[in-house]
Design a protein that fits this description.
The protein is an alpha+beta fold and 234 residues long. The chain has two helices and nine strands.
Length: 234
């Protein structure tokens, strides 16, 4: 288990000579990072040895003697690193021999950082719920405003219809409408009525034709035998 004290080893620059790897390991520790692995499980970790490792600003993440200590024991460097492993706040503690580049290390639960992360998570959840409530409130106000506009539009429409009805004279019944004789158009007696009345055509048997003038004689009615004879003067 990673929470037990286990043997660890530096895994950086495996293709380089030992003396070069020793120099590079010390340089990396002073820079605040190193690649270490648990020998028993083969778990590789890229550790950061810096205070305020959770800060977003690079100037806050600096290496201190609490996290990198070359003076505690001769020939060894004591290291400390804070990080989150599988959603759990942990602290890696251990030491590495500067000659063999191996040592002892383990993982511990970070109570202090876990409380800070829990408070941060609760704050984020509360902010999310607040924004959700504000969004729902805006949606409710928008729906109410839409309903008020619809009701107002309906009231204006009803008022306009009532006003239009009051301005038009009521229609009379068919029996009360005064008689208006149709105008005759043409010789076929097709009545011409007002636009709101239906056009009626009288049957041909009822068509009234004007009386013919009997005094007009056609050339076929003349009697040539009774015509006066012409008088010749000599």
């Amino acid at each position: 288990m990673l929470d037990d004290v286990s043997r660890v080893r530096y895994t950086g620059f495996r293709d380089r000579p030992l003396d070069e790897r020793q120099l590079r390991f010390q340089t990396e520790c002073r820079e605040g990072h190193a690649d270490l692995a648990f020998v028993a499980t083969g778990t590789n970790l890229q550790l950061q040895f810096a205070a305020n490792a959770w800060s977003d600003r690079a100037e806050d993440r600096v290496s201190t003697r609490e996290f990198v200590n070359f003076d505690r024991e001769p020939g060894k460097v004591h290291l400390k690193s804070q990080f989150i492993l599988n959603g759990v706040c942990v602290v890696w503690r251990g030491w590495i021999d500067l000659v063999r580049l191996d040592g002892i290390g383990c993982l511990e639960f970070d109570d202090e950082r876990a409380e800070a992360e829990d408070a941060l998570l609760r704050e984020q959840i509360e902010e999310y719920n607040r924004r959700l409530r504000e969004f729902e409130e805006r949606q409710r106000q928008y729906r109410q405003e839409q309903e008020r506009q619809a009701e107002s539009e309906a009231e204006r429409l009803v008022h306009a219809l009532r006003s239009a009805d009051m301005g038009v004279a009521p229609a009379s019944s068919p029996g009360d409408e005064p008689f208006c004789p149709p105008l005759m158009a043409g010789s076929f007696g097709t009545p011409v009525t007002r636009p709101h009345l239906s056009v009626m055509k009288a049957p041909l048997s009822e068509v009234r034709t004007p009386a013919l003038v009997k005094d007009v004689h056609t050339p076929t009615d003349l009697d040539l035998t009774k015509a006066p004879r012409p008088v010749y003067l000599y």
